[in-house]
Amino acid sequence: MPLDSLPPDFASILGPAGIIADPSDMEAYLRDWRGLWRGEAMAVLRPATTEEVAACVRLCARDGIAIIPQGGNTSMVGGATPEAKPRQVVLSLARMNRVLEVDTADMTMTVEAGLVLAHAQRAAEEHGALFPLSLGAEGTAMIGGLLSTNAGGNTTVRYGNARELMLGLEVVLPDGSVVNGLRRLRKDNTGYALRHLFVGAEGTLGIITRAVLRIFPAARETATALCAVPDEDAALTLFRRFRTADEGAVRAFEYMSGTGMDLVTRYVEGATLPLSERAAHYALVDLSASRERAGLRALMEGVLEAAMEAGEVTDAALAESEAQRAAIWRLREEHPEAQKRAGASVKNDVSVPVSAVPTLIREASEACRALIPGARPVPFGHMGDGNIHMNLQQPESMTAEDFLARSHDIMDTVNEVVRRLGGSFSAEHGVGRLKTDMMAGWRGGAELAAMRAIKAALDPLGIMNPGKVLPGDA
């Protein structure tokens, strides 16, 4: 749509650098990275300060213009993609990308919401510290979006989700007022903890503009191994062995199937398996300690030796350098890209109690094969915290269009197993627009009613990221 369809007040607030209205320049903001959705927008607003965000929100509230907050646009569930409707704008936080302060006494880092995760990690490293949130999209995903979705990632087993890494927030509410909660306190018992409302709300209650994050002492010693295991139960047993040996040393514990590993080594250039032969199941073990001479190598070797004697590990490769460690991690991180190159896939981000992970993988895989003969289950993910990406790859004899037309059947099939095991249909990706129809069945009754009441109280006009999280645009 042409720029003159936007009220002129926006231009006076943002200036030429703060508005994108050319259709070709807007395109990247209107599509999700998976290529599942495309929407429309009057313009893309790119404020540079909290004050500009607040002024834009006030104008949108005045004129009834919906707002789609957007960070790195890496959502797996369409949470940052506009709908195909008029009178809406995308509000990008990309220009608000500064590190405002790193305090190694309080062990906090204050940043703007548009800061890319990899840049936040680097800023902590420059001060001899660690910001532990880590995931495949860390070179693109931004802090505001990660908090808005309560992102998990690879180190949740040790450090928790994004919520646990946040101490304070600054948020622009749907009426343009600003909640300034940028406090660095570990203890603050003064009424409702409002900051937690906005973590995981996916931009439906307000726009996160700045955050106080927790940082930690940097790792001085690490040990990483890729293990071949005979089955899913052996992988869980191996995790328990490491947790029993030294729970504080386990930074990550990831599961990968043989099918997924085959896709990575086939479709990702330079990805090679550091084991003598392929296996049906793999576990990636990552240990770290903030103290020197922590004995992690001996710990790793001792646990693996016992596991091999028990038949729980059939082969293992230990990283001898940082380059080898990165190569092992690449085999895990390239799973989504390999699936994308191999054809269409349906992604199921689910969680169950850690003890139920082997059952989830087996039963969901069997159910999906029965539903669509020839489909290839590609389960992988964070076994240490119970979050498995129970993905399904299209059969080689089936078109992508026909396969994707069965997406909801596939999700329902996986979720039947998840529900029976006491799990959740969304572990770390959020609800977005992909899974709103599931909310009533999983979070109905008083729980969903409370969510609707909160939404109505903070956003009575319904302008903040409509069509996401709550069914029926509530």
TrEMBL record:
PROSITE patterns: FAD_PCMH (PS51387). Keywords: FAD, Flavoprotein. Residues 37-218 form the FAD-binding PCMH-type domain. Pfam families: FAD-oxidase_C (PF02913), FAD_binding_4 (PF01565). The keyword Ribonucleoprotein does not apply. The keyword Flavoprotein applies. PANTHER family: BLL6224 PROTEIN, D-2-HYDROXYGLUTARATE DEHYDROGENASE, MITOCHONDRIAL. Belongs to the FAD-binding oxidoreductase/transferase type 4 family. This is FAD-binding oxidoreductase. The lineage of its organism: Bacteria, Pseudomonadati, Pseudomonadota, Alphaproteobacteria, Acetobacterales.
